[in-house]
Amino acid sequence: MSAMPGPGRYRVPVLGCALAILLASGCARQSETPPSLPGDLVPAGTALGAGAIVGRVLYRGPVIASESISMQSDAFCHQSHAEPSRPEDLIVEPDGALRNAFVRVASGMDRKFAPPAAPVTLDQRGCLYQPRVAGMQVGQPLHILNSDATLHNVHTTSQANPSFNFGMTLQGQGATRYFHAEEVMIQVRCNVHSWMTAFIGVLWHPFFDVTADGGRFAMRSLPAGEYVVEAWHERLGAIRRAVTLGPDETAEIILEFSE
């Protein structure tokens, strides 16, 4: 007959679980406070040059019409839309222009910038995240708003930054969170409504954009240099293109996805 384990046998796993809970709680709280930033940052809004990289993101491939989103599990969500909502994971215009692509200078910009004071707003409206894709800088406030009269929760999946997961129960309720490190991309989900998702790109510099009408993007106030520009899309992945930018030059490029 084996001896019964003494009290000390249970201490390690119990303490381990308690430590894990404390660490998770600490990580969640870390996202609630602005990060400590280096002292040698380029001031927000500084123009390093007069160059620009502009262009369009296109998609050449089959576009299969997605089924409408079923929101019947939540009466408020269902009644918020006169017409059924369509998924936003692949929005392509008739000429191939692709919306919701996150475009950034991925290489060639070594300077780090202080973040703007103005927040980026992620709204929960009509039981959808608006915008679907957003960009911001390290240390810039992320204002999360619940414009709906129903429960949402905001759950990020992150590698370089602490993830957070909290509920928002009241219409008009807001919360502010911060990202402490560069990361492309961070997914945001609502565990209450499975169709709700958004993506956030976090950079040290302001040279990024999200495509909207016409698949257009623009990154301005760049100095002359050798750059790599990346376009990221949630379904199509990422593509890159090298760009040589002369002093005061505007380089116009096309970034084209295929499937």
Summarize the structure.
The chain has 2 helices and 16 strands. With 259 residues, the chain is mainly beta. The strands form 4 sheets. Strands 5-11-10-7-8 form a 5-stranded mixed sheet, with no helix packed on it.
For the structure shown, list the relevant keywords:
single chain, 259 residues, mainly beta, Immunoglobulin-like, five-stranded mixed beta sheet, four-stranded antiparallel beta sheet, 10% helix, flat, disordered N terminus
Roughly how many Å is the radius of gyration? 22 Å
| Backbone shape | flat
**Strand portion:** 35-45%
Overall SS class: mainly beta
Instruction: Estimate the helix proportion, in percent.
Output: under 10%
CATH architecture group name = Sandwich
| Name of the top-level CATH class | Mainly Beta
* Largest sheet: spatial strand order: 5-11-10-7-8
The N- to C-terminal Cα distance equals: 64 Å
Low-confidence segments, ≥5 residues, pLDDT <50? 1-24
Mean pLDDT: 90
How many structural domains can be distinguished in the coordinates? 1
H/E element order: HEHEEEEEEEEEEEEEEE
**Structure annotation, total helices:** 2
CATH homology-level superfamily: Cupredoxins -  blue copper proteins
- The total count of strands amounts to 16
Biggest beta-sheet profile: 5 strands, mixed
Predict the CATH topology: Immunoglobulin-like
